[in-house]
Specification:
The protein folds into 4 domains: 169 residues, Rossmann fold; 62 residues, Helicase, Ruva Protein, domain 3 (Orthogonal Bundle), CATH 1.10.8.60; 115 residues, Zinc Finger, Delta Prime, domain 3; 135 residues, DnaA, N-terminal domain (GMP Synthetase, Chain A, domain 3), CATH 3.30.300.180. The relative contact order is 0.06. It is of the alpha/beta class. 53% of the residues lie in helices and 10% in strands. Helix 9 packs across helix 10, helix 13 runs parallel beside helix 16 and helix 17 runs antiparallel to helix 18. Bound molecules: zinc ion (ZN). Zinc ion (ZN) binds next to helix 4. The site of zinc ion has 9 residues, from helix 4.
């Protein structure tokens, strides 16, 4: 007997079998029973949440010869043919595979003909957002005047990419992520039927990792069975998933909180030796911190999804960790994950992020009143124009000179000696220019908080002193915050522009 993937074997055949989307199944069944089906449906939602399965069930229901209370019978000729994918009036188009131009053209030519085998022609267009503009236009023509015997079911993970003209002609259903308990229960049914023994921890780990997608969960279970046979414990599951267990993540967090650098590095080293992916380690850390956060702020809401064996440790950790720290850790790691895209040294990015977090410690990083004030009104040293600027103005790239970069490492080292906190905030800044005793520090837009803190007069003065000592001349420090596009919001005044070019010479602007 040939092997069939579990998710195919256990694909839902009726609306009742679709998990976690009752709001959609009920509406569709009612529409079928009362003969009020629309001509076009749009099924939106994350991958593996039942969009294509529901589309097929709907295709069967409108063609079934023996409808059972709005459900397809799965016994009649039509149902069987559709299940076998040999029914001529149900057409599946995968827009992702070739962007659908030929299929949509053919659709447009043939859509007028009456169904040849069943009651209704059904076009299921998967990943419809991938269609080309040309294909969308062709589709739109048929959607504008759909023949009575045609039903369109468009499915997409990305509804924002679908033209409004198409959206407005569809009845839209949003498929939800399926909750972990529901996924777990479904997996439990499957292993029972397959005669596989699996530990609760292992099952929970798969369900949690699937993050709302049933198909992914079943595929992982399939891999675990292939890998570990019919008795499955947690460790092979972790190997298949490539995840770091919550227990290990908890240890890493302990090291970070204790500012135990050697422990942190050695744990990371171990994870990598075990073949874990850095991105996955980051995600597992973020996920774990999120669980701690939930445990701290909403312990009674039953939102926490931690394995039982980690609960005690987690509760202990939560007692001593401020919400602010957990939030900071999540943000910093999420930031680091983004940075991975631009780096081929992922481990260093993760290490640097953790070191950053460790340098700041677990205490709230600022004394609130001072910073709130500075966030509300710019300090004197900040450029006045930055608040007045109307439009974001791209500025020429200021390349920091090699000399300045060398000096900068030294500046940072000296600042760390004077204030570890200021050093940590300053770590997000780039020295952008150093001319005529004026040092410009730029912060990426997401570091507004860092920018505000560094912009406090005391801090700017301290940096200026350090720079001044190194260069042997007084230095003025200016902090700038980039906007999202990486530009500086302010425009320089004409005088500043001229000074930039000619330095500190007497000028007269006419
Ligand atoms: Zn049937």
């Amino acid at each position: 007997m040939s092997y069939r993937a579990l998710y195919r074997v256990f694909r839902p055949q009726t609306f009742a079998e679709v998990r976690g989307q009752d709001h959609i199944s009920t509406t569709l069944k009612n529409a079928i029973l009362t003969d009020r089906l629309a001509h076009a449906y749009l099924f939106c939602g994350p991958r593996g949440t039942g969009k294509t399965s529901s589309a097929k069930i709907l295709a069967k229901a409108v063609n079934c010869l023996n409808l059972q209370n709005g459900e397809p019978c799965n016994q009649c000729e039509s149902c069987k043919a559709i299940n076998a994918e040999s029914f001529m009036d149900v057409m599946e188009i995968d827009a992702a595979s070739n962007r659908g131009i030929d299929e949509i053209r053919e659709l447009r030519d043939k859509v007028r003909f009456a169904p040849s085998q069943g009651k209704r022609k059904v076009y299921i267009i998967d990943e419809v957002h991938m269609l080309t503009n040309e294909a969308f236009n062709a589709l739109l023509k048929t959607l504008e005047e759909p023949p009575a015997h045609v039903l369109f079911i468009l499915a997409t993970t990305d509804p924002q990419k679908i033209p409004l003209t198409v959206l407005s002609r569809c009845q839209r259903f949003d498929f939800r992520k399926i909750n972990t308990v529901e996924i777990r229960n479904h997996l439990a049914d499957i292993v029972k039927e397959e005669g596989v023994a699996i530990s609760d921890e292992a099952l929970n780990a798969i369900a949690r990792k699937a993050a709302g997608g049933m198909r992914d969960a079943i595929s992982v279970l399939d891999q675990c069975i292939a890998f570990a046979g019919e008795h499955i414990e947690l460790s092979p599951v972790e190997l298949v998933l490539g995840t770091v267990s919550e227990e290990s993540t908890a240890l890493l967090l302990d090291a970070v909180v204790a500012q135990d650098y050697s422990k942190m590095f050695s744990l990371l080293h171990d994870f990598v030796q075990q073949g874990k992916d850095i991105k996955q380690i980051m995600r597992d850390c973020v996920q774990y911190c999120r669980q701690l956060l939930l445990l701290k702020v909403a312990p009674r809401e039953q939102l926490v999804e931690l394995p039982q064996n980690c609960m005690e440790h987690a509760q202990e950790q939560v007692k001593n960790l401020p919400v602010e720290f957990l939030g900071r850790m999540i943000n910093r790691l999420a930031e680091a994950e983004k940075d991975l895209r631009y780096s081929n040294q992922p481990q260093i990015i993760l290490e640097a992020a953790l070191v950053d977090i460790m340098l700041q410690g677990t205490e709230p990083v600022v004394s609130q009143p001072a910073v709130q004030q500075s966030a509300a009104k710019p300090s004197g040293a900040q450029r006045k124009t930055s608040q007045e600027a109307q439009a974001a103005q791209p500025v020429r790239k200021l390349i920091a000179s090699e000399e300045l970069l060398q000096q900068w490492t030294e500046v940072m080292a000296q600042i760390r000696g004077k204030s570890v906190k200021l050093h940590a905030f300053l770590a997000e800044a780039k020295p952008a220019a150093f001319q005529n005793g004026e040092l410009i520090l730029r912060f990426p837009h997401q570091y507004k908080f860092h920018y505000n803190t560094v912009s406090q007069e005391d801090n700017l003065r301290l940096i200026g002193q350090v720079v001044g000592q190194l260069t042997g001349a007084p230095a003025k420090v200016i902090a700038e915050l980039e906007n999202e596009a990486g530009h500086i919001k302010q425009e320089l005044t004409l005088e500043q522009e001229v000074r930039k070019m000619f330095g500190d010479v007497p000028i007269e602007i006419l």
